[in-house]
Write a structure and sequence with these properties.
- The protein contains nine helices and 21 strands.
- The protein has helices at 45-53, 101-111, 116-129, 145-157, 175-192, 203-209, 227-232, 237-242, 304-308, and strands at 5-16, 19-30, 34-38, 60-65, 68-72, 77-78, 86-89, 163-167, 195-200, 212-217, 220-225, 246-256, 262-266, 272-276, 289-295, 299-303, 318-328, 333-339, 344-349, 360-365, 370-373.
- The strands form four sheets. The chain has a six-stranded mixed β-sheet with strand order 7-8-9-3-10-11, sandwiched between helices. Strands 2-1-4-5-6 form a five-stranded antiparallel β-sheet, with helices on one face.
- The two termini are 44 Å apart.
């Protein structure tokens, strides 16, 4: 059974003066779904989150929560932040230093005039969930960054919000603690079954945490879908390049077929030809310049003598080259590989083989090859 839509943006726009920061945005968040809004600084992601929270008002369109408008300028509807029933963890955590952990977490319930006995019960319950039961009497200044983040999470969860909003909550943590907190937040969300809207500029955070990614740039939604789909099937060059490094090789369309497939040729000392239906041309034409693109993890580099003696599948592009520069960096090698056509590619090689500079290699594109307009 499909989850119900909990929150909806219906053609929402937001501007500051003449600066349009969110442009005609239409998205929906399902009950129990973990959604990441991903993009570079200034793309409109945090503004979108703040509009959900009621900290910013949209200029046009409607924001609908559980079927009811909470921000609809044309209808003169605006539900204030404290009436929306949403929890939010800010980038800075916003923990009050003069209060204990218990007092910080209890604050939202006290504002709602919850009876004292219930406050104690609910706070103890949520502190147990985030693993801070033994620290309820400590002041915020006595806590580590990870512990402060847990306090902020507990405070946002204590009143059972409809949606939890996270604004780059890991950005102030060191790399090891970020990794740990990612896992803890995901486990927490799965345990509670709560919908989460998570804003980040970090691709790893979005890929590892989200059920669905909403990719933004300059106020526009560029693409939305599962992490796997966004990474493996980007719709445009911005999404392709933002989601991770791709190896790009100049080529040319040799022939086109009626079934949408094209033949691509890479000229050079030893030309490479292959057919593919994975291309981003509206109307491909023979002779048109293009780029062959592939994620580096889908490339198999082997010494020439190994590659020459192996069986290569049909229609797998195979390039020959030579290692011009080789650097040992511990768990792998960093290399510059020059293809037979003259292009130089920056690449990482596994320690599986005994590499050396000047070595002839064979580079096989195993899967995930796509072709893009130049």
């Amino acid at each position: 059974m499909a989850a119900e839509t909990l929150l909806k943006f219906d053609h929402v726009s937001k501007s500051y003066g003449n600066n349009l920061v969110v442009k005609d945005m239409s998205i929906d968040i399902k009950d129990g779904e973990f959604v990441a809004i991903l993009g570079p600084s200034g793309c409109g992601k945090t503004t979108s989150l703040r509009m959900i929270a009621g900290l910013e008002r949209c200029n046009s369109g409607e924001i609908i929560l559980e079927g009811n408008p909470i921000d609809a300028p044309a209808r003169k509807v605006f539900v204030p932040t404290n009436k929306r029933g949403l929890g939010m963890v800010f980038q800075s955590y916003a923990i009050w230093p003069h209060m204990s952990v218990f007092e910080n977490v209890a604050y939202p319930l006290r504002v709602r005039k919850t009876p004292k006995a219930q406050i104690k019960e609910e706070v103890q319950k949520v502190l147990e969930v985030v693993g801070l039961t033994q620290m309820s009497d400590r002041k915020a200044t006595q806590l580590s960054g990870g512990q402060q983040q847990r306090v902020a999470l507990a405070r946002s969860l204590v009143f059972n919000p409809k949606i939890l909003l996270l604004d780059e909550p890991f950005s102030n943590l060191d790399a090891k603690l970020r990794e740990q907190m990612r896992i803890e937040v995901k486990l927490l969300q799965q345990r509670l079954g709560i919908a989460v809207v998570f804003v980040t500029h970090d691709q790893v955070e979005a890929l590892s945490l989200a059920d669905r990614i909403i990719m933004m740039n300059q106020g526009d939604v560029q693409q939305e879908g599962s992490p796997k789909d966004i990474y493996e099937n980007p719709k445009n060059p911005f999404v392709r390049d933002f989601m991770g490094k791709s190896i790009m090789i100049e080529a040319e369309i040799a022939n086109t077929g009626s079934n949408g497939e094209i033949e691509v040729v890479k000229a050079g000392a030893k030309p490479v030809r292959f057919h593919t239906s994975s291309h981003h041309f509206d109307a491909p034409q023979a002779g048109q310049k293009c780029f062959i693109a592939i994620r580096s993890e889908n490339i198999d580099v082997v010494p020439m003598d190994v590659g020459a003696n192996s069986v290569i599948g049909e229609n797998i592009p195979v390039f020959e080259g030579i290692i011009r520069t080789l650097l040992f960096i511990g768990d792998q090698y960093e290399a510059v590989i020059e293809l037979s056509g003259g292009e130089k590619l920056h690449f990482y090689l596994p320690k599986k083989y005994d590499w050396h500079e000047g070595q002839n290699i064979m580079m096989r594109f195993s899967r995930g090859v796509s072709v893009w307009p130049e």
